[in-house]
Amino acid sequence: MQSLSAGALSARAAARALASEGLDVALFERNRLGFGASSRNIGFVFLHGRKGVSLDIARRNRLLLDNFHDEMGGDFEYRRNGGLVLCESQGQLSLIKEFVDARRRDGLNIEFIDRQSLLELAPDVDENVVGASFCSEDAQIGTATVVRALAGSAVRSGATVLEGYEVLEILTAGGRVTGISTHAGRFDAPIVVWATGPWHRMATSSGPLELPVKSMRNQLIATTPQLPRLKCVLYGAICLAAYTPLVKDLPSFSPDLFDRRETKAGECMMDAISQRSDGSYVFGGPVDDAGFSWEPDVDGVGRILRRFVRLFPGLFRERIQGKLGRPHSLYLRQPPHH
Ligand SMILES: Cc1cc2nc3c(=O)[nH]c(=O)nc-3n(C[C@H](O)[C@H](O)[C@H](O)COP(=O)(O)OP(=O)(O)OC[C@H]3O[C@@H](n4cnc5c(N)ncnc54)[C@H](O)[C@@H]3O)c2cc1C
User: CB 3.0-4.6 Å disulfide test: which of 6, 108, 169, 184 passes with 28?
Assistant: First the structure.
């Protein structure tokens, strides 16, 4: 074996790239394909809030998605309809227009659209929303479908995918990686790609592996499938607070412009909404340091609901989908014990 990968989206991308270079690759997943953050992701490919190197990387990612989508004959969920940040009051109008002008100077394909144009993309938005910034470079993916497509492509290039295989230790000798150990035995390889997201801590023969990964919780809720209405991903205006470096020096910026009733000190309220290809809406959500929990946090769900009742009053006649209605706690302080 020449290369071993462990993890989801990142590991499958690595496995596919290595296998297509002709290396003998095995991919280890201790649960099932896309078990981690990759299957619970809200699907934003959002360039709106990026500049400099971060924008270059995000554009490169979009190009990879474009090429991979073509190569796969459209065999994963990928919508290239752009993305929005809502302007929720007259008071925010100057700031959002200044934001758009600044982002255009940064080289982004972005414009301000009025309420009438906005309604063509987001017909159910609250009557107080006066317009939005629209970036045509934003997109939306069904991350679980991308994971499956990457794994399929890796297998076709000769990689082996091993689900239910937990990596117990990274083996090293003389300061070099030599392979991994699992319950099913030892696998030797000179290259190991360790891409296990929040489960990044691992024992190696030469001591513990500690990566500088910060663990956080991101809560979302989802509805049952509805008729397709929302044409692109969008954020409420509160998200601009998460992008403070991009707005804080603009002449009209003031923290008082934002409705922060549902935001708590020390956390970031992402204020995101998307409609997936099965018609379900996904809303999120507070991002905080709550540690690991797979169970709903009533406070977080309540705040998400109140926020989106304000933005999309009509949608909340819908039932919340049981399984996906759980907030997903994926960025961990400690690995889960299961
Ligand atoms: C709720 C939520 C919403 C998000 N929304 C967005 C978004 O809209 N846009 C965006 O760009 N990003 C978003 N993200 C971030 C994005 O989902 C992650 O950056 C990405 O999915 C990480 O992929 P990964 O492959 O690195 O990790 P993961 O998808 O977490 O995969 C890690 C995998 O490793 C496996 N594993 C762990 N330990 C072992 C072991 N010892 N042996 C074998 N396998 C092991 C796990 O079972 C898991 O399947 C979101 C994240 C969350 C949590």
Answer: 6
